[in-house]
């Protein structure tokens, strides 16, 4: 497969845009950065007083990059407007280069979710909307069949992380969706809404979480204030997610799965789809095949690690991956290293 690529300048501009958005995420602290350790993991919070109460606003999980930004937060705060204007220029450059942007309705919805804290608090976009964002991460061009936009927006998060963070979205996810004319879709379990449909369009927003047992029922995501549908294999997909930039206004930062995990997960999902879902399975294989071809060339070690991780998770995982690869000889050859 011949891989069409964006220019080196455009690829660098995308990562400059993302870096600027990450700077803004820590620029406007109200109080003091505070280190908190829970269950062997370290998180950072913005601690500040409201009257006699001390409030904690979640910033992110500990990393060298985050600690560096926190040490510079005063300087970053002083340059907020300069960075916003610079990002607007970068967005214009990327659009001129041919990068895909979202329609205004989807862009404004994801922007509102980001402002409320959905992605800061562990929400990870999965599905085709995530796939489209690998264009910037990997610096590749998508064909029309690969990049077709879907109306559905799927957001996944770990239940245990959502419980551990001790912070919530503001405004609530329900309020954000109501503002955009979404109504809860009635389910079998009263009071456990995990999907919303837009009354003036066809957009469906669904919340998902990993299932660690046989039950694929509903689970709470306290940080997001919603219920989520528990699904098998999702824990593999959303482990160690990465940040991504959406080309809307001066850029919006969201969170997506690592591309190598997305590719291998699609092999599993494609084999699970049967009957009426055959067209979706074909789309899953196309997306997986494209990413595998790019990653085999650009990030072979990451791809191999993700493949071996999935293979190590048991015979059912190996059977589903093998079944999809039997229909994808190029991807099978790329993974047979």
Could you walk me through the main structural features you see in this protein, from its secondary elements to its overall organization?
The structure is a single chain. With 337 residues, the chain is an alpha+beta fold. The protein has 2 domains: 157 residues, no CATH class; 80 residues. Helix content is 47%, strand content 20%. It has 16 helices and 12 strands. A hairpin with a 4-residue loop joins β9 and β10. α1 runs antiparallel to α4 and α12 packs across α14. It is globular.
Number of strands: 12
What is the strand content? 15-25%
Mean pLDDT across all amino acids: 92
Compute the number of structural domains: 2
Largest sheet: 7 strands, mixed
Run of helices and strands = HEEEHHHHEHHHEHHEEEEEHEEHHHHH
Poorly predicted ranges: none
Organism: Actibacterium lipolyticum
Domain Nucleotidyltransferase-like: 106-310
Pfam families: DUF6788, NTP_transf_8
Domain DUF6788: 23-67
Q: SSE layout and pairings?
A:
Layout: H1 8-24, E1 32-38, E2 41-50, E3 53-61, H2 64-71, H3 73-78, H4 80-97, H5 104-116, E4 124-126, H6 128-132, H7 134-138, H8 144-147, E5 153-156, H9 159-164, H10 173-179, E6 182-184, E7 195-198, E8 204-210, E9 218-221, E10 226-231, H11 234-237, E11 242-246, E12 252-256, H12 259-272, H13 278-298, H14 300-311, H15 315-325, H16 329-335
Parallel strand pairs: 5-8, 8-10
Antiparallel strand pairs: 1-2, 2-3, 4-5, 6-7, 7-8, 9-10, 11-12
InterPro entries: DUF6788, NTP_transf_8, NTP_transf_8_dom
Protein name: Nucleotidyltransferase
Domain Nucleotidyltransferase-like: 106-310
């Amino acid at each position: 497969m011949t891989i069409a690529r964006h220019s080196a300048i455009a690829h660098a501009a995308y990562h400059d845009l993302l870096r600027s958005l990450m700077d803004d995420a820590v620029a406007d602290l109200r109080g003091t950065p505070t280190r908190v350790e829970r269950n062997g993991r370290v998180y950072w919070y913005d601690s500040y007083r409201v009257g006699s109460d001390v409030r904690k606003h979640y910033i992110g999980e500990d990393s060298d990059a985050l600690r560096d930004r926190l040490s510079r937060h005063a300087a970053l705060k002083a340059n907020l407007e300069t960075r916003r204007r610079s990002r607007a220029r970068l967005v214009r450059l990327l659009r001129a280069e041919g990068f895909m942007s979202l329609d205004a309705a989807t862009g404004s919805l994801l922007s509102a979710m980001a402002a409320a804290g959905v992605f800061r608090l562990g929400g990870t976009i999965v599905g085709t909307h995530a796939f489209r964002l690998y264009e910037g991460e990997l610096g590749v061009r998508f064909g029309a069949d690969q990049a077709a936009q879907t109306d559905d927006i799927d957001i996944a998060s770990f239940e245990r992380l959502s419980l551990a963070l001790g912070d919530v979205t503001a405004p609530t996810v329900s309020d954000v969706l109501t503002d955009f004319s979404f109504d809860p879709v009635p389910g079998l379990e009263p009071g456990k809404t995990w999907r919303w449909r837009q009354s003036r369009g066809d957009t469906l927003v669904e919340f998902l979480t990993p299932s660690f047992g046989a039950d694929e029922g509903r689970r709470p995501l306290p940080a997001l204030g919603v219920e989520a549908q528990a699904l098998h294999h999702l824990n593999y997909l959303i482990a160690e997610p990465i940040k991504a930039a959406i080309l809307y206004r001066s850029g919006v930062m969201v969170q997506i799965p690592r591309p190598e995990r997305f590719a291998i997960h699609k092999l599993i999902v494609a084999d699970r789809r049967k009957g009426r879902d055959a067209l979706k399975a074909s789309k899953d294989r196309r997306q997986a095949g494209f990413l595998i071809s790019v990653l085999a060339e650009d990030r072979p070690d990451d791809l191999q690690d993700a493949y071996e991780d999935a293979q190590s998770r048991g015979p059912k995982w190996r059977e589903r991956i093998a079944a999809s690869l039997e229909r994808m000889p190029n991807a099978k050859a790329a993974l047979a290293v």
